[in-house]
UniProtKB/TrEMBL annotation:
Residue ranges annotated for the Glucose-methanol-choline oxidoreductase N-terminal domain, each copy included: 207-296
Ranges where the FAD-binding domain occurs: 5-36
Domain Glucose-methanol-choline oxidoreductase C-terminal: 390-506
Protein's name in the database: Choline dehydrogenase-like flavoprotein
Length: 523
């Protein structure tokens, strides 16, 4: 008996897999979605406990998740256990690979910052000569950005800055607090724009695939979801050379199964999608697969105190609020020592003060914290990390995961470009804070290892030239016309922006193209 073949098989259920499912099913196409993890049930599996009842008092068990700085005893179960699915990096080149395996992927856990890329990113090589341009411009994707922003209900203010493209916003016209206004004024004198943040409001407390995308696909009656399905290989038809299905393993029973498909949409996340392509030994005629890994630098920053707010003396409306400083370097003039640019998250807090900023301990620290409470002002960098050819991943066939699948070796490091960029950032923010009248307590020039931002991208990049990229401008494999890659692995450059909204935008655009190609019989 011939095995039934599904129309479109989607591997991964995060933001990009969810968007593909929504668009394709609404076009009348039947889809089957595989995810390596279980269905989430927040009500069933969530339990409230006071911290003193937890074995590690809220800290995670030592050594369990060494690369997941975000992990604590409260949330440790949501992250992939590195003992179950290990990976390797050279000791001198640390990499933080933060993973989630459950239906919805990492989409319930992102910070919701929602930025469009500009043509400073899409046409990056034109500006500084490094790397390659995307085979896209902002004009090509702007209509899709607007639709995604409507779905995610992105709040923001229109600023008219070419490096910070305006969007389809829930308008934010809220006034600045007093301290924030002083910082805004200080930036204006230095030519540094300080703008309102842009963030996805979502719905019912979430802005995820689980509540904004997958339900729409389910409502069409065209989506079948199979959880706990760990794909180990994409299979290829020997006659046509096209992808024709997958081999997957049940997470619990370890039973191996086969599923045939007319089209495959790969949306497992940058490194997992690349791992699967490498395991399948496909889509690498260019030699670019696994290369040009990039992300953003995080961790460096300044911590300040607003003097007038100490000892409970803050007048009304002095403290509170946040801001976003979009990239302002290397636009019309060249910065000294680095190319590309960085953005800055700004926080003005009327809550507890960060004790790490005060060089005291014991009773004296308690007294200082009480005095400084409600006076905090801090900044954090989001700096573009360059995607060098040498930043790459390979298969490690000597070390396998709990299902016998080869794992990844990750080789990547930051360079003087990121170091010089970070120094410029800290010095500029310190100058602005000083001009605003804040007390600077910490100037931290050290950034976190690659991967910490959880914005990994670029290992299956797009290009019009099949010799330079893995997919074309429609996220379609150059080597297999019926295989599409929908996640951030297709990014050509990282930019300073949180990639999520762009990922969703490209997935929407690719899915509409795929639906039309299927209608025409071209795929």
């Amino acid at each position: 008996m011939a095995q039934k073949k599904v129309d479109v098989l989607i591997i991964g259920s995060g933001h990009t897999g969810g968007m593909a499912a929504k668009i394709l099913t609404e076009k009348g196409i039947s889809c089957t979605m595989l995810d390596a993890g279980p269905m989430l049930n927040f009500e069933k599996y969530r339990e409230m406990k006071p911290v003193h009842e937890l074995p590690y008092r809220g800290f995670d068990a030592p050594g369990r998740l060494p690369h997941v700085f975000q992990a604590s005893e409260f949330n440790a179960n949501q992250w992939v256990d590195e003992k179950v699915i290990p990976y390797y990096h050279p000791p001198e080149q640390p990499y933080n690979w933060v993973r989630v395996r459950s239906v919805g992927g990492r989409s319930p856990f992102w910070a919701r910052q929602s930025f469009r890329l500009s043509d400073y990113e899409f046409k990056c090589k034109d500006h500084d000569g490094f790397g390659e341009n995307w085979p896209l411009s902002l004009k090509d994707v702007a209509p899709y950005y607007s639709r995604v922003e409507e779905i995610f209900r992105v709040t923001g203010h229109k600023d008219g800055l070419p490096q910070y493209p305006d969007g389809n916003f829930v308008e934010d016209n809220s006034p600045w607090s007093g301290a924030m206004q002083r910082f805004v004024d200080a930036g204006e004198k230095l030519g540094v724009p300080v703008t309102k943040p842009r963030s996805s409001l979502g719905k019912d407390g979430l802005a995820s695939s689980l509540n904004l995308l997958i339900p729409d696909a389910v409502a069409t009656g065209k989506l079948t979801t199979i959880p706990n399905a760990i794909v180990r290989k994409i299979t290829v038809d020997k006659n046509s050379g096209l992808a024709n299905g997958v081999i997957f393993i049940d997470r619990h029973s370890h039973r191996e199964m086969v599923l045939k498909a007319r089209v495959i949409v790969l949306a497992a996340g940058t490194l997992e999608s690349t791992r699967l392509l490498l395991l399948s030994d496909i889509c690498n005629s260019s030699g670019a697969l696994g290369r040009y890994l990039s992300d953003q630098t995080y961790g460096a920053g300044i911590i300040c105190s607003v003097p007038e707010a100490r000892d409970g003396k803050a007048p009304p409306h002095l403290m509170g609020g946040g801001a976003l400083i979009p990239r302002f370097r290397n636009l019309d003039t060249k910065a000294d020592g680095f190319i590309r640019g960085y953005a800055v998250n700004v926080s003005c807090s009327n809550g507890p003060f960060d004790g790490r900023a005060l060089p005291f301990y014991g009773k004296e620290l308690e007294q200082k914290l009480q005095s400084y409470n409600g006076s905090g002002f801090s900044t954090n960098i989001m700096g573009e990390a360059l995607g060098h050819y040498e930043n790459h991943v390979t298969l490690n066939k000597e070390v396998v995961d709990a299902w016998g699948i080869p794992t990844l070796n990750i080789y990547t490091k930051y360079t003087s470009n990121e170091t010089n960029m970070t120094k410029d950032y800290v010095d500029t923010m310190a100058a602005m804070a000083e001009a605003a009248g804040f007390e600077i307590l910490v100037k931290n020039y050290e950034f976190n290892p690659p991967g910490y931002s959880i914005h990994e991208q670029g290992t299956a990049r797009m290009s019009d030239d099949p010799k330079k990229g893995v997919v074309n401008k429609w996220n379609q494999s150059h080597d297999m016309k019926n295989l599409f890659v929908a996640d951030a692995s297709v990014f050509v450059s990282a930019g300073w922006q949180n990639p999520t909204i762009t990922m969703c935008t490209l997935s929407m655009r690719a899915s509409e193209y795929l639906a039309e190609e299927m209608r025409k019989g071209n795929v």
